Amino acid sequence: MASFVDKWVKGGLLEVQEYVLLVSAAIRGMVTRPFYRRDVIEQFDTLGVGSLTVVLLTGFFTGAALALQSGQTLDRFGARSLVGQLVSASMIRELGPVLTGLMFAGRVGSGIAAELGSMVVTDQINALRALGTDPIRKLVVPRVLAGTFMAPVLTVVADTFGISAGWLIAVTSLRVGSSVYWTSVRDALYLQDAWQGLIKPLVLGFVIVTIGCHVGLRTRGGTQGVGRSTTTAVVVASVAVIAVDFFLTPLLIALLY
Amino acid sequence: MTIATERSTELEEALGPGSPIVVFDRVSLAFDEKVILREVSFTLIKGHTKVFLGASGAGKSTILKLIVGLLKPDSGIIWVNGERVDIMTEEELMVVRNDLGMVFQEGALFDSLTVAENVGYKLLEQGLGEDQVWRRVEEVLGFIGLAAYIDNMPSELSGGQRRRVAIARAMAYKPRILLYDEPTTGLDPITANTVDDEIIKLRDLEGVSSILVTHQLRDAFRVATYEAVREGGIVEITPADDEKCEQAEFIMLKDGHVHFEGHSAELRASTDPYIRSFLS
């Protein structure tokens, strides 16, 4: 039992060490040459534009469901007109970043782990190194940059569609006037909320992509290993999204408000 | 077109004909409890061939990875082109790798790139003009007889074609040392012959020093005992004379150490039970 715990702790520490090394190498790769601009642009398209549909749908249905649920609750206090406030504040401060993060982890985190994992098991990573290319600069840096900067953009899209879906439900189902809804949305929002809604996904995007890259590059054991890495990347990144959001929220509240 | 790294005149002279180009001096490596190599020493002479034989897991591929610097030895010294690669950082190794080409098992071609982009990868990385790169790519693919597949994706190629493209990728930037990791494993004899012939042509017509790792005896002997000659613009693969055969040495690894080292004739004549069982 003791040896099992010992092995588990050592394994965990090794993973953390390797993750930190990867992250520091990636940051170094962002500020020194060579910089693979074409790969960065390609990844912005693959990770960002490619995730648009899933994020858009997530935002839309979350906003719609939120409006329906909160409308019912607000009715008890005779405050149905405040539905816009509830939807916008919830979406921008919490649900937008977290749900976009979870979707991003599912689509992008798994994709990166599977792609890099396949490259490891088919010796393509070794081939890159043998051809004189640093895989961190060529593969990790473009993905980290794209993931970090596209996550806030996707979150804004999710927020926009969520609030719009809320409006649709408010007008059609809750019989709240359109102008009442939008005034309520505007009244509830502060500049700090917008900052919070942008900083959170920036951090979450970075965490998701670096986890995907780390897990992918540590793949061992053929195609079975690739499958394991993909699952691990999604699970770890999803839990990380929830956990990082939990720790980030009080920090941002303390700093911004 | 000069693509390989420029070397000083002194080093160029020191690495002239007959000089050692890869040297292993008592190199050992273990992964946890498992010993892979035990004090392995050998020398590859410029323009010559070393063929590594041995059972799976004997450490053959590890030797190639050590030469390229993908792995570091636990002890011992490794010289490549007059440089000690065992103590180099990853950045320093990038320079040494300019003169090393490696053909991986199964080819390890980049799936997302076309055949042409795979072959020209290193040249584009080195910042050569696109015209120059595509000219060289066409030349190299013509050399290995795959010019018609220039715009195909690796997934559209057969196993043998993938290996040959991998050879083209490794030779495109004119390295002086080529390392082949099981280049014919899993191929039918006819396709394997075409791969062997590329290895022979590169060695005899381009003066490349080669290290071949395989457990395919048939291919090992073909590479060691045949030579490429160009007559009137036509390249022919013919049986080599004794002097040429002596330029190819076999090393058999067993349990991480060198069990046999010698020429093809010595290997065939060996009475060692392990070698006999391997040859039979």
Quaternary structure state of the chains depicted: heterodimer
| Overall mean pLDDT of chain B | 87
What coarse outline of chain A follows from CA principal-axis ratios?
Answer: elongated
The general outline of chain B is globular
Point out poorly predicted stretches of chain A.
none
Low-confidence stretches of chain B: none
End-to-end C-alpha gap of chain A = 48 Å
- Structure summary, number of beta strands of chain A: 0
Structure characteristics:
heterodimer; A: 257 residues; mainly alpha; 9 helices; 87% helix; B: 280 residues; alpha/beta; four-stranded antiparallel beta sheet; 12 helices; 12 strands; 28% strand
Structure characterization notes:
The complex is a heterodimer of chains A (257) and B (280). By secondary structure, chain A is mostly helical. Helices cover 87% and strands 0% of the residues of chain A. Chain A is built from 9 helices and no strands. Chain A has helices at 2-31, 37-48, 52-76, 83-121, 124-130, 135-172, 178-188, 191-217, 222-256. Chain A is elongated, with a radius of gyration of 21 Å. Chain A starts with a helix and ends with a helix. With 280 residues, chain B is α/β, with parallel strands linked by helices. In chain B, strands 6-7-8-3-11-12 form a 6-stranded mixed sheet, with helices on both faces. The mean pLDDT of chain B is 87. Chain A binds chain B through residues 118, 122-124, 126-134, and chain B through 65, 68, 70, 90, 94, 97-98, 100-102, 104-106, 108-111, 121-122, 125, 169.
Give a brief description.
Helix content of chain A is 87%, strand content 0%.
Structural topology:
The complex is a heterodimer of chains A (257) and B (280).
Chain A: H1 2-31, H2 37-48, H3 52-76, H4 83-121, H5 124-130, H6 135-172, H7 178-188, H8 191-217, H9 222-256
Helix pairs in contact in A: 1-6, 2-6, 3-4, 3-6, 4-6, 4-7, 4-8, 4-9, 6-7, 6-8, 8-9
Chain B: H1 9-14, E1 20-31, E2 34-45, E3 49-54, H2 60-68, E4 75-80, E5 83-84, H3 90-96, E6 100-103, H4 115-119, H5 121-125, H6 130-143, H7 159-171, E7 177-181, H8 189-206, E8 209-213, H9 217-225, E9 226-231, E10 234-239, H10 242-245, E11 248-254, E12 257-262, H11 264-269, H12 273-279
Parallel strand pairs in B: 3-8, 3-11, 6-7, 7-8
Antiparallel strand pairs in B: 1-2, 1-4, 4-5, 9-10, 11-12
